[in-house]
Amino acid sequence: MKRQPRLSPRSAKSRRTVSIIGTGSYVPEKILTNEDLSRIVNTSDEWITSRTGIKQRRIAAKDEHTSDMAAKAAVKAMEQAKISPAEIDLILVATATPDMLFPATACFVQKKIGAHKAACLDISAACAGFLFAVEIAQQFITSHTHDTVLVIGADKLTAITNWTDRNTCVLFGDGAGAAILRHRGGSHGVLSTHIGSDGQFTDILFMPGGGSRCPITHENVDLHLQTIHMTGKEVYKQAVSAMLSAAKKALDQAGLSIEDIACVIPHQANVRIIEAIADRLKIPLDKFYVNVDKYGNTSAAAVAIALDEANRTGRIKPGDFVLMVVFGGGLTWASTVIEW
Ligand SMILES: CC(C)(COP(=O)(O)OP(=O)(O)OC[C@H]1O[C@@H](n2cnc3c(N)ncnc32)[C@H](O)[C@@H]1OP(=O)(O)O)[C@@H](O)C(=O)NCCC(=O)NCCS
Predict the structure, then answer these.
(1) Which residue minimizes the CA distance to atom 17 of ligand 1?
(2) How much is the pTM?
(3) Catalytic: 169?
(4) d(Cα 308, Cα 153) in Å, to the nearest integer?
(5) pLDDT tens, 57-79?
(6) What is the pLDDT of residues 206-264, one digit of tens each?
(7) Ligand 1 centroid to 312 CA: how many Å?
């Protein structure tokens, strides 16, 4: 029998629940396979598949920007939610690869979709950004400040990838996912959210160049400072423990156990990380929605694309309890339990 969940404290107080009423996603056309990569760096399909589960990733065109992918995902989410751009009060774009440092990528998206009424801002929480944005959207809606929020996770990681570094370039891809959040009667919607960070680990997953600390110069570009730097083993270790603890916190807050969850949608970085979490939560891998084999790690977009696919393919159905859990540079982590 379906367990009665605990309503989020904010929804209980404000008598306003927050649901995802539409999702959308977009990935670029161009596919880069492991085979293709083995002609760029010294790697192999066997190494990449056995260490990560990734078989291919999508690569955005030179003139296809993060905001282009974000806008395409947003249009699909609006279509599914049956809302017009004029109804959107707030646009939150989670990204580590904004079109420019400013203005916000959300402003470019606003222009592209014609959401003229919306306030726009970007969320910087790396791969965990989409669920940070869901948490922020929930706050605006439960406080009755806004009614309709467009949340997007979008990244063009291949623009900040060092294509001579086999330790990193095999892992990443491009894409965008979007969700429309709004109160919907008759559903508990977002039951719990948990976000967290640990600034002790700013040096294990980062891009040193391009900001004010290390501006773009010829010398810095020669040193590849405008690309992703990562200590893979340490990131792996931290990812497993942070996602496990975040998952437990969101479940506890919702008054649910992992057995009540119909589908776990995790950050799509590495299938081994997902397997380790399944193992420690003592649940079968088929409870997880996994698409990292098709797209690689698309950062803030990853969980959003997976959510859209799970939604559109019927993997998650109305009334299901869904757990999303993510992890990213910062370090950052976040989790959400939602009644679909
Ligand atoms: C990156 C990662 C896949 C590496 O896997 P791993 O099991 O730690 O790697 P291993 O120790 O088995 O292998 C390392 C060796 O493979 C080599 N190697 C690295 N990349 C390679 C590649 N693409 N092809 C072939 N060999 C590669 C290394 O040079 C190293 O060789 P050495 O031992 O001779 O120095 C893994 O650490 C990981 O997934 N980390 C988390 C990354 C992540 O998720 N980041 C984003 C978080 S949001």
Answers:
(1) 167
(2) 0.97
(3) no
(4) 12
(5) 999 999 999 999 999 999 999 99
(6) 999 999 999 999 999 999 999 999 999 999 999 999 999 999 999 999 999 999 999 99
(7) 33
